[in-house]
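Protein modeling request. Please complete all fields; requests missing the sequence field cannot be processed.
Requester role: graduate student
Desired output: 3D structure, token encoding
Chains: 1
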Amino acid sequence: MSLLLYNLFIVFYRWALQLAARWNPKAQKWVEGRKEWEQALIRFRQQDQRPLVWMHCASLGEFEQGRPILEWIRANYPNHSILLSFFSPSGYEIRKNYAGADYVCYLPMDSARNARQFIETASPSLVIWVRYEFWYHFLNILSGKNIPVILIAGRFRKSQPFFRSYGRLHRHMLTCFQHLFLQDGASAELLSKVGIHKTTVAGDTRYDRVSAIAEKFEPIPEIEDFVGNNPVIVCGSTWPEDEEELDHFANTRPDIRFIIAPHEIYEEHLRDMEKLFQHTVRFSVWKQSPDAGTTANVLIIDNIGMLSRLYKYAKLAYVGGGFGDDGLHNILEAAVYGVPVIHGPVYDRFPEATELIEEGGGFAVSTALELENRFNQLLTEENALATASRAAATFVASRRGASAYIQTYLEEKRLLTS
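Delivered output (418 residues):
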């Protein structure tokens, strides 16, 4: 891809989002959130002139991968300011008040002017890019100013432009990184073939993140009251496609407590869920008046931020996204507690799902009947459940440590000194 084509793509992408913003709430937030970004960033840097570390994340999932490093920097280098940027509203809107950063913002659309203005105003001493999203002008200008940029939790596939005949511009972006920390050896091999050798196979920082969450687990009294002594299935980050696979089993098993945390909690979706599942109560209602849900076996979580703790109460977990195009959500949040994970058939882009299945802690299903059969097997066969539970816990524990590689590198290269 030539730079001209890249710039044209950026222009058309921005126009498309501005058009979509007229009727699409997510696109509207994308557009509105980037207005007057220059003035806001200038005000922040006038007030906070400490050495600045900038971490960029595409969305919420990438933030969770970067979070162990961000919080380590906060704890060990308090003389540094932290700027956290997002490309997607689904990341920014949830973490815009994140206390671990001094400034949270949208990343402006990639253009030579925007990138130069952003970088010169923020004046970062270190930039950390999480997993993916490679923006040419930002990376090119950072490289030209000799500002160190590292990639963490990177994962590459042969189908990406970096490894195609037309990918010269994308390969240039890779040269802008001082070092790339990768999730797997296959990524390192691909990069080596195009001349990128400053890499370390460190693993996925999400294993460290979910382990830290589990170690700091705090009980949720309202959840404990709801589940009582009943077996619990926690269904996390579900989409309508997932919920349609779950409803029959939930509606015919009043002896089981289902906790469903949908990916999107807008009112229309919550009402659709209440129609689909026969005996429900919303968490907000249950919290205020437990008597309102005495006949319910399905608790609908109508807030953001609880899911990672909910899995602690589960005997089994169902993770959404595997029946649609949006992608499988985080299975590690459940597996860290030794909870077997079940999900839909579309998971080929998620190596952790493949590996968890291979090790016996995960299961993929293609139909509602397969799902019900798997639920029944694990709920009735104690040995099968115990084996899958051990496999899930061991799977996560054995893959911890990616953050330590990155922390050691930052200290050895003295990238966080004043």
